[in-house]
Automatic annotation (TrEMBL):
It catalyses: D-xylulose + ATP = D-xylulose 5-phosphate + ADP + H(+). This is Xylulose kinase. Residues 34-46 have a biased composition (Basic and acidic residues). Residues 306-424 form the Carbohydrate kinase FGGY C-terminal domain. It comes from the Bacteria. Keywords: ATP-binding, Carbohydrate metabolism, Kinase, Nucleotide-binding, Transferase, Xylose metabolism. PROSITE patterns: FGGY_KINASES_2 (PS00445).
Length: 475
């Protein structure tokens, strides 16, 4: 029997690295590996890039195919600021996407150029998550570290560079920096934040190798490494996503997105106008508080995470880490509408509702990027990420969206998308076409439930008051 052509896809996300060894022809998963990350939350949200490398090495080895893989690619958590010194060593731990200390710098960037300018020129109005705001924070807060920095990378760029020795990024992940445009890095933004463009990597086009594995790494030297991309862009590839199909990802972050033919330009900042990993766009809204926040509320209540109960009038906004959508970076969690007969199970359900609400509220805006006809309300939402495994999450999304929900049988869609990118290097196909050939989005469809407009109304009203109560100033 002929040996399969095997590729490895890696998802280096906030909480862990996951690696899949995949048969490039059929998409069958032949081996899996996983290794956890530590996030230091004492001051902001930081991780040591060296532990991502160790986790990658461990997870790739655990697939059992490291020495036989014919190509590899990495999908990584977006936006993180990796700063390297002249010797290529981290100057300090990476500032992660969910570190809101850079909120004042994001506000300054919006004040300086104006929200409409950002939407038109860059495609996104920057919030604290954007790498440009993080670099501005570093310049203002740790100028010595900024001065010592000889290279600025995103998490997946850094890992690809450690594998290959090549300074590289891709358009998808680069579009979350705040300084990328389709025509190159934006000089006015870089000048304003004091970042020398020479510190940035070149953008490798889709479908080409970023480089080849160096000796001493987890792979056979010379193995081709595809460009990789941001984790949401990788999941879009992994689903073989076509324009107009909505995706809701429930992980450390909550994200809602689709692929679009038109470039998004939302001056409200709710919808980020990311590029996808090919030649299209990825309008996306993101929350900071998703599975971890709901799990934390379940722990506080002493309940299993599935142990929800219907009814009641409680509203719980689980903004334990501040929030990005709505833009309340300094918010904390808020409980409203308690009554004598409110049960713990209802409180837990309220946490799910509060976490899902803003994602679903942004869905129409995400889909509207390609015009009103693109938003077919009967089209199922593809539900992915760790939370998609949970019945309580599935039912919450059905109840608050009024749409059917499709559960792709394939798991780990970020790693699968990276694997599809690696396979595309071997076959010359487009990575999304590879994933469609693999049938990765196939899975059961749960029918729509009647939309719970009363719950939506309660949450909307609470948020509108919460904005005034919690403010967005740095207290
Ligand atoms: N059966 C489940 N029900 C609800 N949540 C789950 C379930 N299984 C895993 N999770 C959640 O999934 C999260 C991890 O999802 P994942 O998409 O891997 O996150 P990330 O990519 O951000 O690291 C964990 O926070 C965990 O709470
Ligand atoms: O910031 C965003 C999207 O803009 C996040 O979606 C990050 O990309 C983190 O992803 P996970 O670790 O939650 O998968």
């Amino acid at each position: 029997m002929a040996h399969p052509q095997v590729v490895i896809g890696v998802d280096s996300s906030t909480q862990s690295t996951k690696a899949l060894a995949v048969d490039a022809e059929t998409g069958q998963v032949l081996g899996e590996g996983r290794a956890p990350h530590r996030v230091d939350s004492r001051h902001g949200q930081e991780s040591d890039p060296d532990q991502w490398w160790d986790a990658l090495t461990t997870a790739v080895a655990a697939t059992g195919w490291a020495d036989r893989a014919q190509a590899l690619a990495i999908g990584g958590q977006q936006h993180g600021l990796v700063t390297l010194d002249a010797a290529g060593r981290p100057v300090r731990p990476a500032l992660l996407w969910n570190d809101v200390r850079s909120a004042p710098q994001a506000a300054d960037l919006v004040r300086k150029f104006g929200a409409q300018w950002w939407a038109t020129e860059i495609g996104s109005v920057p919030g604290a998550s954007f790498t440009a705001a993080k670099w501005a924070w570093l310049r203002a807060t740790e100028p010595d570290n900024a001065d010592r920095t000889a290279a600025v990378r995103l998490p997946h760029d850094h890992l690809t560079e450690r594998l290959t020795g090549t300074a590289t990024t891709d358009r998808g992940d680069a579009s979350g920096t705040g300084w990328w445009t389709p025509d190159g890095y934006h000089t006015a933004v870089l000048d304003h934040i004091g970042l020398d463009p020479a510190l940035l990597p070149a953008v490798t086009p889709a479908g080409t190798a970023a480089g080849h594995a160096l000796p001493g790494g987890p792979l056979r030297p010379g193995t081709p490494i595809a460009t990789g991309t941001g984790d949401n862009m990788a999941a879009a590839l992994g689903l073989g996503l076509t324009p107009g199909t909505p995706v809701l990802s429930l992980g450390t972050s909550g994200t809602v997105y689709t692929v679009a033919r038109n470039r998004p330009a939302d001056p409200t900042g709710t919808v980020a106008g990311f590029a996808d990993a090919l030649d299209g766009w990825l309008p996306l809204a993101c929350t900071l508080n998703c599975t971890l926040a709901v799990d934390r509320i379940a722990t506080l209540l002493g309940r299993d995470r599935q142990d929800v109960e219907p009814g009641g009038t409680a509203v719980l906004l689980p903004y334990l880490d501040g929030e990005r959508t709505p833009a309340l970076p300094h918010a904390s969690g808020l409980l409203h509408g308690l009554r004598h007969d409110t049960t713990p199970g209802q409180l837990l359900q309220a946490a799910y509702d509060g976490a899902a609400y803003s994602l679903l509220a942004a869905l129409d805006d995400v889909l509207a990027v390609d015009g009103p006809d693109a938003a077919d309300p009967d089209r199922p939402i593809l539900l992915i990420g760790g939370g998609a495994q949970g019945r309580a999450w599935q039912d919450t999304v059905r109840r608050l969206s009024g749409r059917p929900v499709q559960l792709p049988a394939a798991r780990e869609l970020v790693a699968l998308g990276a694997a599809a990118q690696a396979a595309a290097l071997l076959t010359g196909e487009s990575a999304d076409a590879v994933a469609r050939r693999w049938g990765t989005a196939d899975g059961p469809v749960l029918p729509a439930l009647t939309r719970d407009d009363a719950a939506l109304e309660r949450i909307a009203t609470t948020i509108s008051h919460a904005a005034a109560l919690q403010g967005d100033g740095a207290h």
